[in-house]
Amino acid sequence: MLPPQVSKPSPSGSSPSPQSKVEIINPDTTKDQKTFEHELQSLAAKAKSDTPLNWLRAQALIYARSATLLALLALASTLSQLALSPVYGSLPSARYHRHVLLSGMFVGWAGNLGLEAGLEKLGMKRMQCLLPLVIAYMPVVQHLLGGYSTLLGAAWGPVVTEVITFLPVVVLSVACCATWLDQADLGFVPLPGWVVDALPGIGAYAFFRGMEWLLGPALESVIGSGRFGGVVSSRVGMELVLSGVYAAVAPSSLLLWALPALLHTAFWNTHLPTSSALARVNGELAKEGFVVLDRRESVTGYVSVIDNLNEGYRVMRCDHSLLGGEWTKFIGVGPLKGNQVAEPVYAVFAMLEAVRLVEVERPVPDNEAKALVIGLGIGTTPATLVAHGINTTVVEIDPVVHDFAEKYFQLPPNHTAVIEDAVSYTSRLAADENGQRFDYIVHDVFTGGAEPIALFTLEFLQNLHKLLKPGGVIAINYAGDLALPPPRIVVRTIKTVFPSCRIFREHERNATEFAETGRDFTNMIMFCTKQADRAISFRPPTERDMLNSPSRQMFLYPRHEVGEGDLGEAEQGEGILRRNETEAIAKWHGMSAAGHWSIMRVVLPARVWELW
């Protein structure tokens, strides 16, 4: 301690007077006083700032930042599945998506402090700054891993891709939210402490699910709409837009590292909907003997028209399935010159036309008949019905499918096109007592390796029953694995509505393959009427029925009938398919879609599917 300080002598140099006091100053006491005063000032400032308005602002900022990241995560969740569906199909892409999501949420919420500390050691003060980079590299990784899809398979391919691309987005987003929500003041909530502690996590997940439910369909409606331009409204384009939004939310100098990803996407990613990317696709596919004539992203998926130059046929693709195909090498050749209809590649489309061969009590001349076709594909069946002079209405949900069918396939313009969801259209028409009714209904819907479940429910089929005239005939195509329960459930539901039916499959079961794999994937067609007392029979086809078509001569008349025992024994709890009870069939569609995925990789080379 320093010695006491004596007061400075007066300017005159005289000694202090007896009345004056000697002032002793202790530096430690002065320091304590200053510290105390500083604390008082801090408390006063804090008391002044802790107004209800400032508290409300601070809390609102916490929730706003968390809500922003969770809403963006909901968009990333939808985009991740959409980007995988052209390579793996929509059902395989979604099969384990929820598992990846929940795992990432658990890791992010439980390990936010450890993750934050680890990043701080690396010199990164804000976790959210990594998010724009991760999103920017999503198209790169998806494109590169797509080339290994055959090796990975439909089961592991989507999982591996999402673990590398989507899982980091989940972990980082949830970890940031957990850190921010730890600062939320919930002392005013009149609930037990353990409930209050759980509220941020429960609330965050509920908010995310709500955003997924709200923003997911909205994003899907934008994809392929061209609303913001062809590139921006694509899957890859929206991933880049999402990366830009993340960059605006969490700007940092790390964004420079996104430049390589942007360059790869712009110049090497074949999934980008640009003319240069399409040229790169066709450069690769030329080695396989294929060429993509046109491609577009739309409401039901990625749609393209592909020519096989070596064998001379054309197909329309939607995501990881084919909507139909026709032989181009026979158009205008020899005796087929001038034919009204094309030669279908797949026999099932010729079989559907046998709806006209079903014997009814009072046959209707073609020029007086009306037909309703649900699901267009490339337009093989509608084109045939029109060629026979039948007034034909086609209900197709995807405008791009209809556009491509008219532009690249032989769908004639003299038909009535209804671009609408079939459920809404048939429900509205069936409710109108004076509405149009039909002599023939052809139900042919299929995409992504599975049938749209809503179009096989009891309620939908009951609407079709109302739309079918008393002496009319309906043909329903169902594609799936006949070794699984869904075909049994669908058949039982159809027979509940239409009492008289016969079922035929596209080809005979391959006994060897079935014994080895246990799979029996095929198209089956049910021909039904409303007349319970009249068995289904077919009249012999005439030359006019064949339309000078070799394919129809071979496949028009139904063969390979499916008996009651061919679908296997019903399992316990199997019933009929109702609108609000679709879980019984939905859980099996993943297995059926995986089998369909393998078949598609045989029908067309892997590179056709991988390059989009």
From TrEMBL:
Pfam families recorded: Spermine_synth
Composition skew (Low complexity), residue ranges: 1-22
InterPro entries associated with the record: SAM-dependent_MTases_sf
Biological process terms in GO annotation: polyamine biosynthetic process
Organism superkingdom: Eukaryota
Residue span of region Disordered: 1-30
Gene Ontology molecular function, alphabetical: thermospermine synthase activity
UniProt entry keywords in alphabetical sequence: Membrane, Polyamine biosynthesis, Transmembrane, Transmembrane helix
Membrane-crossing residue ranges in chain numbering: 62-84, 96-117, 129-151, 163-181, 188-208
Protein name stated in the entry: Uncharacterized protein
Native organism: Chaetomium thermophilum (strain DSM 1495 / CBS 144.50 / IMI 039719) (Thermochaetoides thermophila)
